[in-house]
Structures are given as structure tokens and as C-alpha cells.
Amino acid sequence: MRCPTTRACFVSIRSFSSSNLLPALAGHEPNDLLNEVRLLSSRGQLHQALSLFYNSSPQLHSLQTYATLFHECARHGYLQQGLRLHHFMLAHFPSCTSDLFVTNHLINMYSKCGYLQYAHQLFDAMPKRNVVSWTALVSGYAQCGRGVESFRLFSDMLAERDCRPNDFAFTSVLSSCDYLCGKQLHALVLKMGLGASVYVTNSLITMYSKGYKVKEAWTLFKSLSCWSQVSWNSMIAGFQLAKLGMHAIGVFVKMHHEGIGFNRATLLSVFSSLCGSNGIDINLGLKFCFQVYCLSVKTGFISEVEVATAFMKAYSELGGDVSEFYHLFLETSCQDIIFWTSMITALAEPDPAKAFFLYRQLLQEGLTPDLYTFSIVLKACAGFVTEQHALAIHSQVIKAGFEDETVLRNALIHAYARCGSIALSKKVFEEMGCRDLVSWNSMLKAYGLHGKAKEALQLFPQMDLKPDTATFVALLSACSHSGMVEEGLRIFDSMFKDHSIIPQLDHYACMVDILGRAGRIVEAEELIRRMPMEPDSVVWSALLGSCRKHGETQLAKTAVSKLKQMEPENSLGYVQMSNIYSSGGRFNEAGTIRKEMDGSGVRKEPGLSWIEVGNQVHEFASGGRHHPQREAICIKLQGLIGQLKEIGYVPEISLALHDIEEEHKQEQLFHHSEKMALVFAVMNEGKLHGGGNVIRIMKNIRICIDCHNFMKLASGFLQKEIIVRDSNRFHHFKDNICSCNDYW
């Protein structure tokens, strides 16, 4: 770990002139140096404090001075400066190594800087430890996300005589532990009489909220005799995590009426509570969103990019017109690169085209994109059908001198993979001189997305960094897409055994998907029952998809019931159950489900496909509705269907969702949006990127079996590679074969 400011620090130390301070210290006591060091540090002038220290007489160096400087290095995260100071101390003041006070500060510094191995070595070598020694190391592991080690160390601390954990020790270990460990710690808190501590209670509220036990968090919140800002923030964030947006808003309103000041963290949670499936009435949500926006303008928090981005994301998801908040921001004073980047960030995922348009407008305004702007624009590029936009931004990144920035190379890996070019993702990854954990995770995820699980599993052992939870989500997803059940089980079991990582909801969802897709639905159901936390909608959706594939009607009903409770406005449960009944010929039951769905006001997301021809993106709905060339496309499609039937294409009429004549069932299938997009591409072959040898189609839902079979045969008949990106993965069709090997 090399601190990016190391070189600047040493230049500063060498060039700093301490001639105006050293004479004043001549003939004085060690306390004089200590006071000067403390004064400089309090002013944020740590480099000058270090320079003064190194240029002073060793006779003036005291334990307190070393401790003060180690504390400041820890506070600022200056690992290299701390290492140099430590080596200096060993050379000039070796007796310090046995001092409890100084060693505690050293452990704290190395822990805060993430240098846990060295911190633990110092800890193990201590002849005597106190509660500060233990707490510093417990806190270090917790801050690095290593909850298992933190909890284990805390447990060892309890076995020590005369070493009673304090408030800070509890808050540290609670910040990274899971629900089961947290419950044990809560019991210990009550036993030790720390239940009245507002700091410990705040940590317990956060722990329960992260474990989706918001009722227990709310009970704790109400039990407090006085609430700090952290208490309110923890509870608002808890309701937001539980997707109880109205409750989060209610707590914020009460907090404001109580006269409690809010901060950046409060606003981020409140705006996030207005997003997604949080049960917010649209009109009420928009009104409240605007009111919180006014408060953030009044307090100046709106000038912070994260707050501005959170507002715009909430406002757009609630249906607010982009042009409206564009004008709102024009009226504020933050019309700089941060403002523009915020605007682009809010639109990068929901509307990549508008985000890219704003980026071009930013350039026209004469503003210079920074590293963060480029990373967000590349995120928007990931939403396009082809890699043309990502290539254009890549060239601008090089021109701006940001080519070697790890953050941007990571964004490029992601963008190229999402646009269908795994080859470009791999090229960027292999050319990286320095890779961080995101780099490895991005490449693993890219392989999984394109059905290259073997490549992902071969890359994993080459990692020179400790994997995290996201690493295993990528690996398990790759196994799921490729049907590698035994490999998935082995990886899942190794998480805790070999890497001390506790599986979370995402990992269980992957495992349910792996087992369920392979037909091992009983094992998938059993895994859900054994989960140490409540299954979320993703877990139940994975099980429902498996039931749909293998015709498990009874278990599907259970999954649908759970989904309706968790996300009553989501159409997935209704649609999948209707499909299951229709596939089994039970059209009356399917009709009942559709009527129930209509009666609940739930609307199914329409199947859409997009294709880029020239510089224009064309959208297709089923049947080609609204497209100006619909008639010509349908005629061309009928001809292609006839040709493919001659070489073996048989429509999967069992997928038709109504009890109608076979001829009409075929007609339903023939006009699926991806088929319309394919034919339109063939009609405009000369305008396709790359000369038309590769046809790229993007769709918003999973490709059906019939369209999958159709694309396989079409790829061979047309002698073209057809790449379809659906909501779940990429399918590369070439020479009558799909990269998924018909497993998806």
C-alpha cells in the first residue's frame, strides 16, 4: 500500500524550513517540542510538524510526541509517513517499543491505514495489553470489513482478565458483524449495563437495520432517553434499507420538528427512501422531494455532488421532468463541473441517451471533464447497444491524460462488457499496470455475464488481493449462467472456510438460482429455509424462475405469495405464475391470475428490444407497434420464418399465453420484439457498425425459448454473429450455436 501523497510529503519535509522554530526550541524541554507539534497538527500542518520533529534534537523527543504524531498519521491515513516515523523511533528511541501507550498508538495507526498484518504482529508481541490495545485492533478489522476477525478478536478480549470492553469496542465490532453475532453482542450489552449508552444503541440500530430487522431497530430507537443526530440518521437509514420509505420520511419530519440539525448522511438516506419500491405515493413523494431539496439548498448541502445526485435520482424516479430539475439547478449557484456531473449521474442508468446528451452539452459550455465525470459517462455508455460511445469516451480519456487511472480502466472494463465486447474488456484488464479489487471483480463479472464461467474460475486464483463479497457474487453468478453446480457449491462453502467471508443475501440468491436451474429445486428450497436471514425478493424471484423452468406449480405459489407481500406493485410474480399455468394448458387459472393482476392495478413491463442502425437507436415492441416501417419489417420477417422452417425451425407454441388456435399462437411468437429488431438490422445491413457482420440487440426482459431457437438458426442461415443482451446475460449466437449452450 503506497500512499499517493507520499512523494509530496517527503518533498514537503525536505523543503520545509524550520529555522524559525528550531532556535526557539534550543535549550528548552521536551514539552516545548510537544506543544509545537500539537499546535501545527491542530492547524492541519502535519508535514511541517514532522519536519520540525526530524530536525530537532533527539533529546527533545518524548513518548507523548511520538504518540501525538502517530495519532495524526492515523487520523489522516498517512501510512508511509507513519512507517518512516516508526523506523526513526526504532533507530533513535528503541525503548519505546515496550511502552504500552506508544504501542497502542502504533496499532491504531496501522489499523486505521489498513495495514492489519503489521498491527496484529505488534499486538501479539506486546508483553501487556489493555482495553485500548484490543479495541484499536477490533476497530481496525471492523473498518476493513473483516467482521469475522473483528468478532473473534472481541471474543478473545472477553476472556482477558481486567479487560472490560468499553462503548467504543462495542460500537466497533457491531459495525461489521452480522445479525446472529449482533444478537449475542446485544445480550452482552444488556448484561454489562451498557444499554443506556447512546453510542452503543446507535450501533445496535444500524446492525439490526442492515440485517433487515427494522422492527427491533425501531424498538431500540424508541427506548432512548435522548436522541443524537446519529440516532435519527441510523433510524432513517434503517427504514430506507427495509424499503419503508414513508416511515423514513416520517422520522425525518419528526427530526426536523424537534429542531435536530441534519447533515449530508441524513439527506442521502431521505432521498434514497424516495427511490425504488418504497411504497411512496408519487404526488406526495414529488412534493416532499422538492421540500427536502429546498432545505438542502438553504443549508448549502446541495453543492455536494452526492447530495445533488441523490436528489436528481429521486426526482426522476418519481416521474419528475428532467427539464424541471435542470431549470431548478440553473437557478442555483452550483453550475460547475460538479453540477453537470450530478445531472449526468442521475440519468446514467435510467436514460443513458439523455446522460450522453448532457455530456456533449457540458463540453459545449467549455467545461473540462474530470476523472469522476469520465467514470460516470462510461457508466452511461454501458447502457448502449454497441461499444461505439464507449470507444469515443475512451479516446477522450487518453487525450485528457487519464489513461492510467485505475478507476477509469475499471469503468471501461464494465462498459465494454455491457456493450457486448468481452474482448475489449479483457484487453483493458490485461494492459493495466496496477489493478485494485474492483478491477478483478469487474473482469470476473464480465466473464460471467458472457457465459464464460471457466475463464472466470481460471482468473480467480490469479488474484493478488483478498477477495470480498462482490468477488463471490461474480463467481457464483458465472457458475449459475453456465450450470456449474458442483463448482458453485464448492465456492459457496469456501467463502467462510477459506476466506472468512459470511455469505449474504446476494450469495444465497445465486445459490438458489444455481440449484434451481439445475432442477435441484428441493435443495434450493431447503437452502432458503436454512438461511440465517430473511430471504428477500431476489431470493424468491430466483426460486420462482426455477419453478417456471421445471413446472413446479405448488412451490411457485409460495414464492409468488412472498413476492406479493414484499413488492406488491411488481408484476413478476403474477406474470410467472400465469406463464406456468399457460405452459401446462391451464388457461382458466392463467386468466384468473391476469384478472387479479389487473384488479390490483399492477402493470406488466412490456417486452422491448433496441438496435442501433447508423447513429440512431430503434425501439421495437411486440408486433412492431409504432415503428414507421412495421409493414415492411413484418413482410421480411414472414419470409425469414419460412426459410428457417425449411431448415428445422419449429415454433414453441406452448409458450403462447392464451387458449387460442395454433395459427394465432404462432403469430404471437413471430412478432416478438427481438425478431422484429433482427429483421430490421438485416434490412439496413450497410448501416450497421462493423460492416454488418455482427448484429447487436438489447432487450429489457429475458429472451424466450422460441426466440432463442430462432436466433440460433438465423445466425447460421444469415452467416452472421447475433449478440443478444437480455435482462440477465449475453447470448452470442453463431453458426447455429449459442454461447450459453442452451442453459439460461
Q: Can you walk through the features of this model?
A:
With 744 residues, this protein is mainly alpha-helical. Helices cover 64% and strands 4% of the residues. Among the domains are: 455-600, Tetratricopeptide repeat domain (Serine Threonine Protein Phosphatase 5, Tetratricopeptide repeat), CATH 1.25.40; 608-738, no CATH class. It contains 40 helices and 6 strands. Strands 2-1-3-4-5-6 form a 6-stranded mixed β-sheet, with helices on one face. The protein is globular.
Order of adjacent strands in the largest pleated sheet: 2-1-3-4-5-6
**Distance, first to last CA:** 41 Å
Mean pLDDT: 86
The CATH architecture of the domain at 455-600 can be named as: Alpha Horseshoe
CATH class of the domain at 455-600: Mainly Alpha
Most strands sheet: 6 strands, mixed
Count of distinct strands: 6
What is the molecular shape? globular
- Would you tell me the structural class of the helices and strands? mainly alpha
Radius of gyration: 30 Å
User: Helical content, roughly?
Assistant: 55-70%
Q: Percent of residues in beta strands? A: under 5%
